[in-house]
Amino acid sequence: MTFPNDENGSVLAEMQEAGIDLSKSLTVEFFQLFEQEKDARALAEFVQNSDMNAVVNVHPDQTPNVWDVDCQIEMVPSYENIVAMEEKFEKLANKFNGFNDGWGVQQDD
Asked: Which residues form the Regulator of ribonuclease activity B domain (predicted)?
């Protein structure tokens, strides 16, 4: 399987080369960053009350005065699904004065 020549495509290609089956549902974690804890908690509450079926974790970042909102979603990590979910999180994070900071996959071995 080939992927577009961008950051998401590169990550998916590396995952495929590492032997991860990208046709199966995996836990994909999307990261959002905020300067204000109240904004981070507002996004977390919004996501938890939505139909996204996400597991949400709010915690201080390693960078001072920055808050992380990590949202785990079970999904097939196709390029199209990743791009669509990143766009959704970018819009949501912007709505709550934050920004999307990428994604990653947790493997259950």
From this structure: 5-105
In angstroms, the CA 56 to CA 27 distance is 12
The model's confidence at residue 2, banded by pLDDT at 50, 70 and 90, is confident
Distance CA 48, CA 55 (A): 7
Residue type, 101: D
Where are the chain's structural domains? 26-106
d(CA 109, CA 106): 9
Mean pLDDT of the residues in the chain: 94
DSSP conformational letter for 63: S
**Which of 52, 2, 1, 4 is CA-nearest to residue 29?**
52
Contact 16, 1 (CB under 8 A): yes
Q: What is the pLDDT of residues 11-25, one digit of tens each?
A: 999 999 999 999 999
Expressed in angstroms, the distance from the first to the final Cα of the chain is 23
Query: Which pLDDT value is given to residue 108?
Result: 59
pTM over 0.85: yes
